[in-house]
Amino acid sequence: MTTKSRDARVRGLYAVTPDEADTRRLCAMVAAALKGGAQLVQYRNKTAGEALRMEQAGALLALCRRHRVPLVVNDHLELAAAVGADGLHVGRDDGDARAARARLPDALIGVSCYNELERALAAQRAGADYVAFGRFFASITKPGDIRASLELVAAAKQAVDLPIVAIGGITLQNAAALVRGGVDALAVVSALFDSSDIEATARAFAALYATHAQPSHE
After folding, report:
1. Domain 3-211: which CATH class?
2. Which one of 23, 50, 73, 207 has the lowest number of neighbouring Cβ atoms within 10 Å?
3. Mean pLDDT score of the chain, rounded to an integer?
4. What global pTM score does this model have?
5. What positions carry a catalytic annotation?
6. What is the separation of C-alpha 123 from the centre of its chain, rounded to a whole number of angstroms?
7. Do 157 and 181 contact (CB within 8 A), yes or no?
């Protein structure tokens, strides 16, 4: 798979899973998000043990394959390799894109860059397929993180030849500004999975790209 074909998949709603111990419930939630138009799914569970992570990642991978949507594993390189996930997302303490690329040569590799443009440039040099900035707004899942800005997005669009993902406190009320600002994908946890109608909320997030988006990343 070429870099450009991997890049093309980083667009629209990027559903990031909550810490849910019930695998059946988790899959039902993700299925609703996929029906609503999520274009990527990230399996992220900070509280699960190794056995539960393996169970959930495998179940979600099967679900995502049925919908032809990539499953990206957060943090755990060996888990991503073991289940054959489509991608891996790494943060500051999870290794780097170069090591991930060596272990998973065909995977979609994303890197958390917080509010650091230099980190995004380094991720690009190391072989990442996309970079993620945030948090942009007050966040339940990332309450203490430093803030990113639309000015940073604009600078990254000029300096980095990779899709840009925004994460952190994104809701239907504030997401349009990010889409208009050139963000290629919105990584959403609470506003999606805590909603009373996950499918409808996913559809509303997806619709923002039909209404507000700049031309897709080339």
Report:
1. alpha beta
2. 50
3. 92
4. 0.93
5. 44, 112, 142
6. 15
7. no
